[in-house]
Write a structure and sequence with these properties.
This protein is mainly β and 174 residues long. The protein is 11% helix and 40% strand. Strands 1, 2, 3, 4, 5, 6, 7, 8, 9, 10 and 11 form an 11-stranded mixed beta sheet that branches. 25% of the residues are buried.
Length: 174
């Protein structure tokens, strides 16, 4: 199983597929890497697609997953920012998945926490970061949610503006 850590864009188009790591639902106890639709089934939500779930006051005893990320993106008005860990490592965003049902595919949501001091200048919340050493704690439910789904301390992230030139070059490369 080889996951690729790529930028996570919370403004990605509906229907975006992302890799998630989860335990196989067959009860075998084996982990798998699968592509899943970002945003859960709107079957009970009048067609509204839910992409995030707040961590506060909730438990996630099953259907836990992880999304590998090299960075996440923040957009404020017309400016885009790249957020990376201050040590340069990749990380995972904590999530929960839902099985395919009817015409709706396998899907997942990202769990959010209150923004840390650097991010709070741009937005109120961000995805819950799971470090590489915490992967099994999250997937195996070895630690309480309150111990893993926390707002990171100050100086945890590096934030840099993504220039319009860089965005244009990436668009041309596709």
């Amino acid at each position: 199983m080889s996951a690729t850590a790529t930028p996570f864009d919370s403004n990605a188009a509906e229907g975006t597929l992302r890799q998630i790591i989860r335990y196989k639902p067959d009860g075998s106890g084996k982990k798998e890497l699968v592509n899943a639709h970002w945003g859960t089934n709107p079957r009970f939500s009048d067609g509204i697609e839910y992409r995030f779930v707040r961590s506060e006051g909730k438990t996630f005893p099953s259907h836990r997953c992880l999304t590998p990320a090299s960075e996440f993106r923040v957009k404020v008005t017309s400016k885009n920012y790249r957020v990376t860990l201050n040590d340069g490592n990749f990380f995972y965003l904590a999530g929960v998945w839902e099985p395919a049902m009817g015409a709706w595919p396998l899907a997942f949501r990202i769990i959010t926490v209150g923004a840390n001091p650097e991010i709070s200048r741009y937005q109120e919340r961000h995805g819950a970061v799971i470090l590489r050493r915490q992967v099994m704690d999250w997937l195996d439910c070895n630690k309480l949610e309150a111990d893993l789904l926390v707002t990171p301390p100050a100086h945890f992230f590096l934030i840099e503006e993504i220039s319009s030139t860089e965005r244009h070059k990436r668009a041309l490369a596709r």
